[in-house]
Amino acid sequence: MFEIQEVIGRPLSADELVTRYRTLSEDACFANVPGKVELDAWGRILMTPPSFYHGVIQGRLARKLAALGGEAVTEAPIATPSGLFLADVAWASSQFMSAHGSDFAPTRAPEVCIEVVAPSNSVKELTEKREAYFAAGGQEVWFVYPQTKRCEFYGVQGSLPSSSYPVDLSGLFD
User: Fold this and answer.
1) CA distances for 111 relative to 3, 9, 96, 107, 142, angstroms
2) Burial classification of residue 78, based on how many CB atoms lie within 10 Å of its CB (0-12 exposed, 13-18 middle, 19 or more buried)
3) How far apart are CA 12 and CA 45, in angstroms?
4) Whole-angstrom Cα distance, residue 88 to residue 28?
5) SS (H, E, C) the chain
6) Of all residues in the chain, what percent carry a pLDDT higher than 90?
7) What is the spatial distance between Cα 124 and Cα 101, in angstroms, rounded to a whole number?
């Protein structure tokens, strides 16, 4: 006989989060849910409905990152030790794509993970996502603030004056 789990007794592993996320993604009941769906470390659903301008900025970032080669991915699911989060935009090198490009939700973060900040985001949430992307192997995290038309860049060691990747961000907010 099998044991019934009545409560989640510990944070889920990255693999367990991927399994739960895949189940949600394949469930027809979630087919028309607006906004992105993420999971925290306990498997709880987090939802953030984006604005149209948020999507415009995502598209512009993806086009600008294309100059690096590799792949720019929007709404990139990344299973981290802290939860399964969708980077608004991520940049992955050819090497990353060879190793993880066919993963449903990689347990390793691409080199660059970008969050387009919305008024509903909290400093705590952004800090947690930054730490989660680094814990999963990301090299840089960018926070893009559409309302104040600015970007913040972070490396594993902390704040950076600019990205170490040669990306021209001029015109991003035009």
Assistant:
1) 40, 32, 8, 13, 11
2) buried
3) 13
4) 23
5) CCCCCCCCCCCCCHHHHHHHHHHHHHCHHHCCCCCEEEEECCCCEEEECCCHHHHHHHHHHHHHHHHHCCEEEEEEEEEECCEEEEEEEEEECHHHHHHHCCCCCCCCCCCEEEEECCCCCCHHHHHHHHHHHHHCCCCEEEEEECCCCEEEEEECCEEECCCCCCCCCCCCCC
6) 72
7) 30
Q: Give residue 35's pLDDT.
A: 73
Question: CA 154 to CA 34: how far, in whole Å?
Answer: 30
Half-sphere exposure of 49 (CA within 13 A, CB side): 3
pTM (2 decimals)? Answer: 0.89
d(CA 145, CA 82): 23
Q: Token pair of 79, please?
A: 């299973």
Residue that the structure tokens 């060691």 belong to:
157
Q: Give the pLDDT band (50/70/90) at residue 1.
A: low
- Residue type at 104? F
Mean pLDDT calculated for residue range 106-115: 97
Q: Where are the domains of the chain?
A: 14-160
Cα 43 to Cα 81: distance, rounded to the nearest angstrom: 12
CATH code of the domain made up of 14-160: 3.90.1570.10
How far apart, in whole angstroms, are the C-alpha atoms of residue 104 and residue 102?
6
